[in-house]
Structure to design on (220 residues):
């Protein structure tokens, strides 16, 4: 399969998965039976698609580019309001379902599956009422979430992730959650690796988590 055909296959699969989630959208909104029940310019499906195509520009510019400067289309407040209604579980299900449709098959030396786990901080719009993500540094407070992601080194793609508020950031716990969601044989291998590290290494938990993923590559 050439790259163009594969890309079109991924795109059509992604659209189909969003449609599947849309049919059960009441399970992924904050107020079932009320959210996305009216006929609006931005329904659940359209809002999900917009979230996926947004890049790093300001929201007004993004929407203007997407809608070709059509002033009759959805406004920034309308999009923000609709986006707020969708629970994060909708995007997580989409992410995991897409990975399931395209399983990771590449192995290192045709034998090992190489996985890497690490974390990073993500800046969020300022929300002073969210104490768990609020960070006060000097005169400029800001909000941050912490993302811990599991990455397949051979496939060059993410296979799972955990997002935590800044005040509850714990990469070791995030790794534990990710491992618990893995296939049973993979999970057992990583659990065995983590147990070995806990018994033999007295370094900090964050370093242990990273070492666990590195060593587990030889076990999978």
């Amino acid at each position: 399969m050439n790259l163009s055909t594969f890309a079109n296959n991924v795109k059509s699969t992604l659209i189909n998965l969003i449609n599947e989630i849309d049919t059960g959208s009441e399970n992924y909104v904050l107020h079932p039976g009320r959210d996305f029940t009216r006929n609006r310019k931005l329904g659940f499906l359209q809002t999900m698609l917009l979230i996926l195509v947004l890049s790093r520009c300001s929201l007004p510019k993004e929407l203007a580019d997407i809608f070709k400067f059509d002033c009759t289309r959805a406004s920034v407040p309308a999009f923000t309001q609709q986006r707020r209604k969708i629970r994060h579980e909708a995007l997580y299900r989409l992410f995991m379902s897409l990975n399931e449709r395209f399983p990771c098959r590449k192995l290192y030396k045709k034998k090992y599956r190489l996985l890497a786990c690490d974390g990073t901080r993500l800046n969020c719009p300022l929300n002073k009422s969210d104490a768990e993500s609020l960070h006060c540094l000097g005169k400029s407070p800001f909000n941050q979430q912490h993302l811990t992601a599991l990455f397949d080194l051979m496939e060059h793609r993410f296979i799972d992730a955990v997002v935590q508020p800044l005040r509850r950031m714990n990469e070791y716990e995030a790794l534990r959650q990710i491992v618990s969601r893995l296939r049973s044989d993979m999970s057992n291998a990583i659990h065995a690796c983590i147990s070995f590290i806990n018994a033999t290494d007295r370094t900090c938990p964050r370093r242990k988590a990273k070492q666990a993923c590195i060593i587990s590559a030889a076990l999978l």
